[in-house]
TrEMBL record:
<feature type="domain" description="Histidine kinase/HSP90-like ATPase">
    <location>
        <begin position="261"/>
        <end position="346"/>
    </location>
</feature>
<keyword id="KW-0067">ATP-binding</keyword>
<dbReference type="InterPro" id="IPR011712">
    <property type="entry name" value="Sig_transdc_His_kin_sub3_dim/P"/>
</dbReference>
<dbReference type="GO" id="GO:0016020">
    <property type="term" value="C:membrane"/>
</dbReference>
<dbReference type="GO" id="GO:0046983">
    <property type="term" value="F:protein dimerization activity"/>
</dbReference>
<keyword id="KW-0902">Two-component regulatory system</keyword>
<dbReference type="GO" id="GO:0005524">
    <property type="term" value="F:ATP binding"/>
</dbReference>
<dbReference type="Pfam" id="PF07730">
    <property type="entry name" value="HisKA_3"/>
</dbReference>
<dbReference type="InterPro" id="IPR050482">
    <property type="entry name" value="Sensor_HK_TwoCompSys"/>
</dbReference>
<feature type="transmembrane region" description="Helical">
    <location>
        <begin position="50"/>
        <end position="70"/>
    </location>
</feature>
<keyword id="KW-0472">Membrane</keyword>
<dbReference type="Pfam" id="PF23539">
    <property type="entry name" value="DUF7134"/>
</dbReference>
<protein>
    <recommendedName>
        <fullName>histidine kinase</fullName>
        <ecNumber>2.7.13.3</ecNumber>
    </recommendedName>
</protein>
<keyword id="KW-0597">Phosphoprotein</keyword>
<keyword id="KW-0808">Transferase</keyword>
<keyword id="KW-1133">Transmembrane helix</keyword>
<dbReference type="GO" id="GO:0000155">
    <property type="term" value="F:phosphorelay sensor kinase activity"/>
</dbReference>
Protein backbone atom coordinates (compact mmCIF):
# COMPACT_ATOMS: atom_id res chain seq x y z
CA UNK A 1 0.00 0.00 0.00
CA UNK A 2 2.87 2.37 0.77
CA UNK A 3 4.15 1.86 -2.78
CA UNK A 4 0.78 2.85 -4.22
CA UNK A 5 0.76 6.06 -2.17
CA UNK A 6 4.25 6.96 -3.40
CA UNK A 7 3.36 6.25 -7.05
CA UNK A 8 0.12 8.23 -6.73
CA UNK A 9 1.97 11.20 -5.26
CA UNK A 10 4.56 11.08 -8.04
CA UNK A 11 2.04 10.90 -10.88
CA UNK A 12 -0.14 13.69 -9.46
CA UNK A 13 2.89 15.86 -8.84
CA UNK A 14 4.24 15.05 -12.29
CA UNK A 15 1.00 15.97 -14.01
CA UNK A 16 0.71 19.26 -12.15
CA UNK A 17 4.32 20.35 -12.68
CA UNK A 18 4.80 19.11 -16.24
CA UNK A 19 5.06 21.72 -18.93
CA UNK A 20 2.72 22.11 -21.88
CA UNK A 21 -0.29 24.18 -22.75
CA UNK A 22 -2.92 22.09 -20.96
CA UNK A 23 -5.92 23.38 -19.08
CA UNK A 24 -6.52 22.69 -15.43
CA UNK A 25 -9.39 20.37 -16.28
CA UNK A 26 -7.14 18.51 -18.71
CA UNK A 27 -4.53 18.05 -16.02
CA UNK A 28 -7.18 16.72 -13.64
CA UNK A 29 -8.38 14.25 -16.25
CA UNK A 30 -4.85 13.13 -16.98
CA UNK A 31 -4.17 12.70 -13.25
CA UNK A 32 -7.38 10.65 -12.93
CA UNK A 33 -6.26 8.29 -15.71
CA UNK A 34 -2.89 7.71 -14.10
CA UNK A 35 -4.43 7.34 -10.63
CA UNK A 36 -6.72 4.64 -12.01
CA UNK A 37 -3.64 2.87 -13.40
CA UNK A 38 -1.95 3.29 -10.03
CA UNK A 39 -4.96 1.76 -8.26
CA UNK A 40 -4.68 -1.26 -10.56
CA UNK A 41 -1.22 -1.88 -9.11
CA UNK A 42 -2.95 -3.15 -5.97
CA UNK A 43 -3.51 -6.44 -7.83
CA UNK A 44 -0.01 -6.59 -9.33
CA UNK A 45 0.94 -9.74 -7.38
CA UNK A 46 -2.32 -11.58 -8.00
CA UNK A 47 -2.81 -10.67 -11.67
CA UNK A 48 0.51 -9.27 -12.91
CA UNK A 49 -0.22 -9.75 -16.62
CA UNK A 50 -3.64 -8.09 -16.40
CA UNK A 51 -2.27 -5.16 -14.40
CA UNK A 52 0.56 -4.80 -16.93
CA UNK A 53 -1.97 -4.52 -19.77
CA UNK A 54 -4.12 -2.03 -17.86
CA UNK A 55 -1.21 0.27 -17.03
CA UNK A 56 0.05 0.06 -20.63
CA UNK A 57 -3.37 1.06 -21.95
CA UNK A 58 -3.55 3.94 -19.49
CA UNK A 59 -0.10 5.21 -20.52
CA UNK A 60 -0.91 5.03 -24.24
CA UNK A 61 -4.29 6.69 -23.75
CA UNK A 62 -2.76 9.44 -21.65
CA UNK A 63 -0.10 10.03 -24.30
CA UNK A 64 -2.54 10.08 -27.24
CA UNK A 65 -4.90 12.50 -25.47
CA UNK A 66 -2.09 15.04 -25.32
CA UNK A 67 -1.82 15.43 -21.57
CA UNK A 68 1.45 16.69 -20.04
CA UNK A 69 4.27 14.27 -20.76
CA UNK A 70 6.47 12.85 -18.03
CA UNK A 71 4.65 10.76 -15.38
CA UNK A 72 2.64 8.44 -17.67
CA UNK A 73 5.18 5.54 -17.81
CA UNK A 74 5.53 5.22 -14.02
CA UNK A 75 2.60 2.84 -13.26
CA UNK A 76 3.57 0.68 -16.24
CA UNK A 77 7.21 0.49 -15.11
CA UNK A 78 6.10 -0.62 -11.62
CA UNK A 79 3.76 -3.20 -13.16
CA UNK A 80 6.57 -4.48 -15.39
CA UNK A 81 8.85 -4.88 -12.36
CA UNK A 82 6.08 -6.75 -10.50
CA UNK A 83 5.50 -9.05 -13.47
CA UNK A 84 9.16 -10.04 -13.57
CA UNK A 85 9.28 -10.42 -9.79
CA UNK A 86 6.24 -12.73 -9.93
CA UNK A 87 8.16 -15.08 -12.22
CA UNK A 88 6.29 -14.20 -15.43
CA UNK A 89 9.55 -13.75 -17.25
CA UNK A 90 8.33 -14.36 -20.79
CA UNK A 91 5.54 -11.83 -20.44
CA UNK A 92 7.87 -9.23 -18.90
CA UNK A 93 10.54 -9.69 -21.57
CA UNK A 94 7.99 -9.60 -24.39
CA UNK A 95 6.44 -6.45 -22.95
CA UNK A 96 9.63 -4.43 -23.51
CA UNK A 97 9.66 -4.42 -27.34
CA UNK A 98 5.87 -4.19 -27.39
CA UNK A 99 6.00 -1.10 -25.18
CA UNK A 100 8.71 0.49 -27.34
CA UNK A 101 6.61 -0.25 -30.41
CA UNK A 102 3.54 1.34 -28.78
CA UNK A 103 5.53 4.48 -27.98
CA UNK A 104 6.70 4.64 -31.59
CA UNK A 105 3.16 4.09 -32.91
CA UNK A 106 1.76 6.70 -30.54
CA UNK A 107 4.33 9.23 -31.76
CA UNK A 108 3.35 8.59 -35.35
CA UNK A 109 -0.38 8.72 -34.54
CA UNK A 110 0.02 12.00 -32.67
CA UNK A 111 2.00 13.50 -35.54
CA UNK A 112 5.24 13.69 -33.54
CA UNK A 113 8.63 12.80 -34.95
CA UNK A 114 10.03 9.78 -33.08
CA UNK A 115 13.33 10.52 -31.40
CA UNK A 116 15.84 7.66 -31.43
CA UNK A 117 17.41 8.75 -28.17
CA UNK A 118 14.02 8.82 -26.46
CA UNK A 119 13.22 5.31 -27.65
CA UNK A 120 16.59 4.05 -26.42
CA UNK A 121 15.98 5.68 -23.03
CA UNK A 122 12.51 4.09 -22.80
CA UNK A 123 13.94 0.68 -23.69
CA UNK A 124 16.72 1.08 -21.11
CA UNK A 125 14.26 1.94 -18.31
CA UNK A 126 12.04 -1.00 -19.17
CA UNK A 127 14.95 -3.44 -19.38
CA UNK A 128 16.17 -2.17 -16.01
CA UNK A 129 12.71 -2.76 -14.51
CA UNK A 130 12.67 -6.34 -15.80
CA UNK A 131 16.22 -6.94 -14.57
CA UNK A 132 15.48 -5.61 -11.10
CA UNK A 133 12.31 -7.71 -10.92
CA UNK A 134 14.26 -10.82 -11.88
CA UNK A 135 16.90 -10.00 -9.26
CA UNK A 136 14.25 -9.59 -6.56
CA UNK A 137 12.62 -12.88 -7.54
CA UNK A 138 15.96 -14.67 -7.51
CA UNK A 139 16.81 -13.36 -4.07
CA UNK A 140 13.39 -14.30 -2.73
CA UNK A 141 13.71 -17.85 -4.07
CA UNK A 142 17.20 -18.06 -2.63
CA UNK A 143 15.93 -17.01 0.80
CA UNK A 144 13.15 -19.59 0.53
CA UNK A 145 15.66 -22.26 -0.43
CA UNK A 146 17.85 -21.35 2.54
CA UNK A 147 14.82 -21.44 4.84
CA UNK A 148 13.76 -24.84 3.51
CA UNK A 149 17.30 -26.14 3.90
CA UNK A 150 17.45 -24.87 7.46
CA UNK A 151 14.09 -26.46 8.22
CA UNK A 152 15.25 -29.77 6.74
CA UNK A 153 18.45 -29.67 8.78
CA UNK A 154 16.48 -28.90 11.92
CA UNK A 155 14.13 -31.82 11.24
CA UNK A 156 17.14 -34.10 10.77
CA UNK A 157 18.65 -32.80 14.00
CA UNK A 158 15.44 -33.47 15.92
CA UNK A 159 15.17 -36.94 14.37
CA UNK A 160 18.78 -37.73 15.32
CA UNK A 161 18.32 -36.43 18.85
CA UNK A 162 15.10 -38.38 19.31
CA UNK A 163 16.69 -41.53 17.96
CA UNK A 164 19.79 -41.17 20.10
CA UNK A 165 17.78 -40.37 23.22
CA UNK A 166 15.05 -42.99 22.91
CA UNK A 167 17.23 -45.79 21.58
CA UNK A 168 19.65 -45.59 24.50
CA UNK A 169 17.08 -44.92 27.20
CA UNK A 170 14.69 -47.64 26.05
CA UNK A 171 17.55 -50.13 25.79
CA UNK A 172 18.59 -49.26 29.35
CA UNK A 173 15.00 -49.64 30.55
CA UNK A 174 14.72 -53.02 28.82
CA UNK A 175 17.98 -54.28 30.35
CA UNK A 176 17.17 -53.08 33.86
CA UNK A 177 13.57 -54.31 33.71
CA UNK A 178 14.80 -57.72 32.55
CA UNK A 179 17.24 -57.82 35.47
CA UNK A 180 14.46 -56.94 37.90
CA UNK A 181 12.22 -59.71 36.55
CA UNK A 182 15.04 -62.22 36.73
CA UNK A 183 15.77 -61.41 40.39
CA UNK A 184 12.27 -60.78 41.69
CA UNK A 185 11.90 -64.31 43.09
CA UNK A 186 15.42 -65.41 43.96
CA UNK A 187 16.86 -62.06 45.15
CA UNK A 188 13.99 -59.59 45.46
CA UNK A 189 16.18 -57.12 47.34
CA UNK A 190 18.28 -56.73 44.16
CA UNK A 191 15.25 -56.09 41.98
CA UNK A 192 14.46 -52.76 43.60
CA UNK A 193 17.69 -50.98 42.54
CA UNK A 194 17.02 -52.09 38.96
CA UNK A 195 13.48 -50.75 39.13
CA UNK A 196 14.78 -47.47 40.57
CA UNK A 197 17.16 -47.23 37.62
CA UNK A 198 14.21 -47.82 35.28
CA UNK A 199 12.33 -44.98 36.95
CA UNK A 200 15.30 -42.61 36.68
CA UNK A 201 16.04 -43.48 33.06
CA UNK A 202 12.39 -43.08 32.09
CA UNK A 203 12.33 -39.65 33.71
CA UNK A 204 15.53 -38.63 31.93
CA UNK A 205 14.11 -39.84 28.62
CA UNK A 206 10.91 -37.88 29.13
CA UNK A 207 12.82 -34.68 29.90
CA UNK A 208 15.12 -35.06 26.89
CA UNK A 209 12.24 -35.80 24.52
CA UNK A 210 10.39 -32.73 25.78
CA UNK A 211 13.52 -30.65 25.28
CA UNK A 212 14.06 -31.95 21.74
CA UNK A 213 10.45 -31.45 20.69
CA UNK A 214 10.48 -28.00 22.25
CA UNK A 215 13.55 -27.13 20.15
CA UNK A 216 15.47 -26.36 23.34
CA UNK A 217 19.12 -27.25 23.10
CA UNK A 218 20.04 -28.83 26.40
CA UNK A 219 23.24 -30.48 27.53
CA UNK A 220 22.49 -34.19 26.93
CA UNK A 221 25.16 -35.22 29.42
CA UNK A 222 23.39 -33.37 32.23
CA UNK A 223 26.23 -31.00 33.06
CA UNK A 224 29.02 -33.57 32.71
CA UNK A 225 31.45 -33.60 29.82
CA UNK A 226 31.44 -36.57 27.48
CA UNK A 227 34.50 -38.10 29.13
CA UNK A 228 32.75 -38.20 32.52
CA UNK A 229 29.35 -39.30 31.22
CA UNK A 230 30.32 -42.27 29.04
CA UNK A 231 30.83 -44.87 31.83
CA UNK A 232 27.34 -44.11 33.18
CA UNK A 233 25.92 -44.65 29.70
CA UNK A 234 27.44 -48.11 29.61
CA UNK A 235 26.18 -48.98 33.08
CA UNK A 236 22.63 -48.03 32.12
CA UNK A 237 22.81 -50.36 29.14
CA UNK A 238 24.17 -53.19 31.30
CA UNK A 239 27.69 -52.88 29.90
CA UNK A 240 31.04 -52.81 31.64
CA UNK A 241 32.94 -49.95 30.01
CA UNK A 242 36.71 -49.80 29.91
CA UNK A 243 37.48 -46.12 29.40
CA UNK A 244 40.83 -44.80 28.21
CA UNK A 245 41.63 -41.13 27.70
CA UNK A 246 44.71 -39.77 25.97
CA UNK A 247 45.79 -36.17 25.74
CA UNK A 248 44.74 -33.31 27.96
CA UNK A 249 41.01 -33.55 28.70
CA UNK A 250 40.20 -29.91 28.00
CA UNK A 251 36.71 -28.45 27.77
CA UNK A 252 35.26 -28.90 24.29
CA UNK A 253 32.88 -26.53 22.50
CA UNK A 254 29.31 -27.43 23.55
CA UNK A 255 28.27 -28.71 20.13
CA UNK A 256 31.37 -30.91 19.84
CA UNK A 257 30.97 -32.25 23.37
CA UNK A 258 27.29 -32.99 22.74
CA UNK A 259 28.11 -34.79 19.48
CA UNK A 260 30.81 -36.85 21.22
CA UNK A 261 28.31 -37.84 23.88
CA UNK A 262 25.64 -38.75 21.35
CA UNK A 263 28.04 -40.89 19.31
CA UNK A 264 29.11 -42.77 22.42
CA UNK A 265 25.48 -43.14 23.46
CA UNK A 266 24.39 -44.59 20.12
CA UNK A 267 27.44 -46.86 19.79
CA UNK A 268 26.94 -48.27 23.31
CA UNK A 269 23.23 -48.73 22.61
CA UNK A 270 24.09 -50.76 19.53
CA UNK A 271 26.51 -52.91 21.52
CA UNK A 272 23.88 -53.57 24.18
CA UNK A 273 21.27 -54.44 21.58
CA UNK A 274 23.15 -56.40 18.96
CA UNK A 275 26.68 -57.39 19.96
CA UNK A 276 25.78 -60.08 22.50
CA UNK A 277 28.55 -59.02 24.90
CA UNK A 278 28.65 -57.16 28.20
CA UNK A 279 32.08 -55.57 27.87
CA UNK A 280 33.05 -52.66 25.66
CA UNK A 281 36.06 -50.41 25.28
CA UNK A 282 35.80 -46.66 24.73
CA UNK A 283 38.84 -44.61 23.74
CA UNK A 284 38.79 -40.82 23.83
CA UNK A 285 41.73 -38.88 22.43
CA UNK A 286 42.16 -35.12 22.87
CA UNK A 287 44.41 -33.90 20.07
CA UNK A 288 45.50 -30.32 19.27
CA UNK A 289 42.98 -29.72 16.49
CA UNK A 290 40.34 -32.36 17.04
CA UNK A 291 38.95 -35.00 19.37
CA UNK A 292 38.58 -38.67 18.50
CA UNK A 293 36.22 -41.21 20.02
CA UNK A 294 36.40 -44.93 19.37
CA UNK A 295 34.02 -47.61 20.63
CA UNK A 296 35.22 -51.22 20.35
CA UNK A 297 33.59 -54.54 21.19
CA UNK A 298 34.21 -58.22 20.56
CA UNK A 299 30.64 -59.16 19.84
CA UNK A 300 28.99 -60.50 16.73
CA UNK A 301 28.85 -57.13 14.94
CA UNK A 302 25.08 -56.94 14.63
CA UNK A 303 22.82 -58.36 11.96
CA UNK A 304 24.68 -59.50 8.90
CA UNK A 305 28.00 -58.78 10.63
CA UNK A 306 28.10 -55.17 9.50
CA UNK A 307 26.56 -53.50 12.52
CA UNK A 308 23.50 -52.32 10.66
CA UNK A 309 20.13 -53.68 11.60
CA UNK A 310 17.35 -53.66 8.98
CA UNK A 311 15.24 -50.53 9.44
CA UNK A 312 17.76 -48.95 11.81
CA UNK A 313 19.21 -45.48 11.41
CA UNK A 314 21.90 -45.43 14.12
CA UNK A 315 25.01 -45.62 11.91
CA UNK A 316 23.56 -43.18 9.38
CA UNK A 317 22.56 -40.78 12.15
CA UNK A 318 26.05 -40.81 13.66
CA UNK A 319 27.59 -40.26 10.25
CA UNK A 320 25.28 -37.29 9.55
CA UNK A 321 26.02 -35.77 12.94
CA UNK A 322 29.78 -35.98 12.42
CA UNK A 323 29.65 -34.78 8.82
CA UNK A 324 27.55 -31.77 9.82
CA UNK A 325 30.42 -30.65 12.07
CA UNK A 326 33.06 -31.17 9.38
CA UNK A 327 34.45 -34.35 10.93
CA UNK A 328 35.15 -37.89 9.76
CA UNK A 329 33.39 -41.11 10.65
CA UNK A 330 33.77 -44.84 10.08
CA UNK A 331 32.02 -47.91 11.40
CA UNK A 332 32.51 -51.57 10.56
CA UNK A 333 33.58 -55.04 11.69
CA UNK A 334 36.94 -55.50 13.40
CA UNK A 335 39.52 -58.01 12.23
CA UNK A 336 39.06 -61.13 14.34
CA UNK A 337 35.49 -60.27 15.32
CA UNK A 338 33.58 -57.46 16.92
CA UNK A 339 32.72 -54.00 15.76
CA UNK A 340 34.41 -50.60 15.72
CA UNK A 341 32.89 -47.12 15.65
CA UNK A 342 35.28 -44.22 15.18
CA UNK A 343 34.70 -40.52 14.83
CA UNK A 344 36.95 -37.48 14.54
CA UNK A 345 35.47 -34.09 15.37
CA UNK A 346 37.25 -30.76 14.86
CA UNK A 347 37.69 -28.63 17.95
Amino acid sequence: MALLVVVAALVVGGVQTAGGDVSASGRLTGAAILLAATAALYWRRRRPAVVLAVTAAAAVGYYLLGYPLGPEPLPFVVALYATAEAGRRMIAVAAVPVAVGLVLAADVTAGRTPEGEDLVAVAAVLVAAVGLGELARSRREQRQAYAEQAATQERLRIARDLHDTLAHQLTAISVQAGAALHKRDSRPELAYPALETVRQVAGDALREVRAVLGAVRVDPAGGQNACEAVPALGARAGLAVTMSVSGEAVALPPHVDAATYRIAQEALTNVGRHAGVTEVEVRLAYLPRHVEIEVLDRGNGGAGGDGRVPGGHGIAGMRERVTALGGRFSAGPRPGGGFRVWAMLPR
